[in-house]
## 1
Amino acid sequence: MTIKHLGLTGSIGMGKSTVGKMFEKMGLPLYNVDARIHDLYEPGGIAVDPVGEIFPEAIIDGRVDRPTLSRLVVGNDKAIKKLEKIVHPLVGQDRHEFISKAEQEGHAFVLLDVPLIFETGGEKNFDHIIVVSAPENVQKKRVLARDDMTEEKFEAILARQLPDAEKRKRADFVIDTNCSEEETFDQVKALVEKLRDA
């Protein structure tokens, strides 16, 4: 039996990471692209040298310094494209290894937390897509509460993301996080049962 690929996505501040952990709690292997990139940026990580060649000032103490890199690329399409050219193939290789391992362990599903599935035309790589969603005012409040966030940065990130309403329309399943964590977890449990019974 081939392992089923589930895509987990949602705009910034929708609670995607929290929901991802809930799926993990339910026994689904979770591949979190952002977290894996973080690992690739750490000292000894395979992205440090290639990123340093293009953005030398982003390398601090032998690691890619994310806030510095963010300042260099956010709002600069050319720089973002250069960075994606380095990071995407590395992530692709890493993800492939993760999925193979999950398959060998006998899992029926693997969950891939990918922030920009629709924006990159990646939906064709998944059996089902789960969108994490919350109202706009809740999203904004959550995001602006983050330490390194400004209104400008939030707007720049939003500009690169498909509107939430459009994501919900294109999703196979929607998890609404405008409720308690317990109620969110109930939605996750119900969805996992539904997928396992399908």
## 2
Amino acid sequence: MNLIIAVVQALWIILPAYAANASAVIVGGGKPIDGGRIWKDGRRVLGDGKTWNGLFAGTFMGMTVGFTLAFVARYLDLNSLNIFGLNDFGGFPLMLPIIFSICFGGLCGDIIESFFKRRAGKKRGEDWYGFDQLDFVFGALLFSFITSALIHFLTGENWFLESIKTEHIIMVVIITPFLHILANKIYKKTKKLNKK
């Protein structure tokens, strides 16, 4: 598989999870998922950064991006312009549960990582390199794999196995940490500028 094509396809598929993860930070706030509870180690279960608003609004924003990508890919297919083989997430109606699983799964991966981050004694906003950058990727991949397996029993189609190759996973795992760190630096600088 051509390297550039593999990178473009991989980023295309994971972009809804990127959007969900970024949106959860921007539109989050409100009631924390853990309700302020303390774990037996004396630390918060998740912390104030993981909220119901972030989970649901982030999922919605990510799905909006995903639906847009699906329609663009379908349009390119119909007009023989899809030179990169961009994925339409199974087309309608299969794209509904697939895109949901990518977005919601990505945010669940972030929430699970937050639980272990608290156990490791890391504070909210403190960097935990490797984990902070890939938690949502693995969550998105796991949830979309499970969703595809369930759909496979109903339809005989398995979107995950048909669409995501080993090369795609490798590309996402290599590229995402760099993009995540860059996006966080931009976000933190923007916050500082807005406070001035």
## 3
Amino acid sequence: MAQIIDGKAVSAAIKEELKGKAAQLKQEGIQICLAVIQVGDDPASSVYVGNKKKACAYIGIDSLSYELPEETTQDELINLIEELNGKEEVSGILVQLPLPAHIDEDKIIRAIDPGKDVDGFHPQSVGALCIGQPRFVSCTPAGIIQLLKRSGIEIAGKECVVVGRSNIVGKPMALLLLRENGTVTIAHSKTKNLQEVTKRADILIVAVGRPKMITREYVKEGAVVIDVGIHRNENNKLCGDVDYDDVAPICSAITPVPGGVGPMTIAMLMHNCVEALTKR
């Protein structure tokens, strides 16, 4: 039977560690503060922002919340970011994505001070990851590395396949696996013979954005399968990019949806907030 990799348990352990670090910093007179900006009232974004505020409160991080109307202009948003960049008491800045269509996400990401870029999306953060220098790392890929390590899964020397090449998950995931001495292949929508490629994987990480796309035909017996996807199926139940019921019987370990990768993203955001004071 496959080991179920419990993201809730791992994220809870990380949050407890961070709570201790935040309390120690507070005793030294250092208070961490995260500024969260949301433009518009997208329901999913509102849920994510609420979860981030709850995590901050639990760990002992101050949070500033900016809920801006949908019609906020790009210049108004950049002006707010620049104001927060200049505030010494603000250690991290997060702009909730996606943004309304009239705002250029790339320009907004670039406006954030790289020393406060707790999402790890700024080109300087990505560039540092590429050349192995310390900077913020995207929260979901960083969380997956923690899931693997804390579940006793060795990465070094393993054949790792990442399905998906987004800037937020696929590309940084591949770089982090390389950093851990994995042998990495990135597959995507244009990959020929995808099943042959994924069946080589000792560790298969799926971030393709298509519900239940990965069935047992894509998976090598005994592989570790990490499912980054989250969707609602025809019965309005949450599911991932992996057909869990089909794949779990042949895996050595697998993440469920929900309760796998999802909780790790916020845990690693909190980690980046605590680390922010050392990244200036």
## 4
Amino acid sequence: MENDTICAVSTPLGISGIGIIRISGPDTYRIIQEIFQPKNKKVSLNKWKSHTVKYGYIIDGNKILDEVLVTIMKHPKSYTREDMAEIGCHGGLAAMKSILSLCLSRGIRLASPGEFTKRAFFNGRIDITQAESVMNIILAQTEKSLEISIKQLSGALSEKIQNLRTKIFNLLVELETMIDFAEEHAIKEIQPDIKESINIIYKNAESILKSGQSGKIFTEGIKAAIVGKPNVGKSSLLNLLTQEEKALVSEIPGTTRDAIESVISIKGIPLKIIDTAGIRNPEGIIEKMGVEKAKSWMEKAEIVLLILDGSQSIDALDIELMKNLKNRQYLVVINKTDLPFKIDTKEIERFTNEEKTIKISARTGYGINTLYEKIYQLIEKGSGTLKDPEFFLNIRQETILKNILSNLIETQKLVNENFSLDIISEQIKFCLLDIDIITGKNLSDEIIDSIFEKFCIGK
């Protein structure tokens, strides 16, 4: 880990009211003293207390670059556990660029993606699971996913993993002690105790895995594809669900040529809604591509919302689409109930049941609350009971926990088959190594770099 000073713009580039430039490293305080002039010139920067804000100007020699607020955070009570500063300037490109260039000219290096958080990890402020949750906070799509990510940053997952590690470590110590005094123990006598300890560890690891998988749905969300023939009200339904004019609505069939995506929250779960092109016999290459993509979404979306026009009779294409719903999580949504009702519901019941059928009007909003509830029931059916999770697992963490469970199963077999304590102990050591990989104690530099390179610069 380099012991230099880094800086970066921590807010999105563009025109905004405020921009923030973040600095971290041993030269932070010296550089701030050189480039910052307090509005009250009687203020002594040498006596500047940590975690306080001062108003003044960023200067380059005698030239004022911008009017700013500067916050100082002295080590070790900072995000990186280094000396840090944040310059709150005006959010225009010129202002931020000029201040950043001035910092770089004073010997500061431009930070790489995620380097501030990486320093927090290397300096022991957070472990790797907490570092990964920082990115999840940034990417959170609902209030619930944000809440879970903040709990994880506060150590909700780290605490569970550390408790699991303690149990594995204690078992390993017991085994090593038994090996040292092997003549005092008969393997058959201690088998029940070893098996019970392994069983407790297994249930603990399994509980973490199941809870983390349940929590993942609140962060990754569910994809729901709106499909149907042209002009049945797919785009109108998208606009109703999102409460925005996301899609162009027209009486002309085939208005939507490509999939339009939007995210809404269903009881805290991000639901990515995909409004697809109307499915019919296409008349051109572009329309054909749109129809093919719509059929593709029917296959890969977790939930399919098939829209039928309640003011029209069912035709062969409607029947074909309903047949394609077999083995899928779906709802048949009969739209346009505000118009004279002509659709034959008995014909629909040949392919589905009343529980999976709902009548709505995308124009008036009739049935929308029932639709929300039925979508949630489908999510719950596909994911099990949706409890209130404190954390979730990413693919890396989930894979390692599964490896630990496999190792524990293998260890139980070794105990049952009367293998030596040395071999059993070595198998438990694999579990301990995996635990330390989850928290970052046993990670290679390559994996650490791959985790942080996904971060934005300035975080």
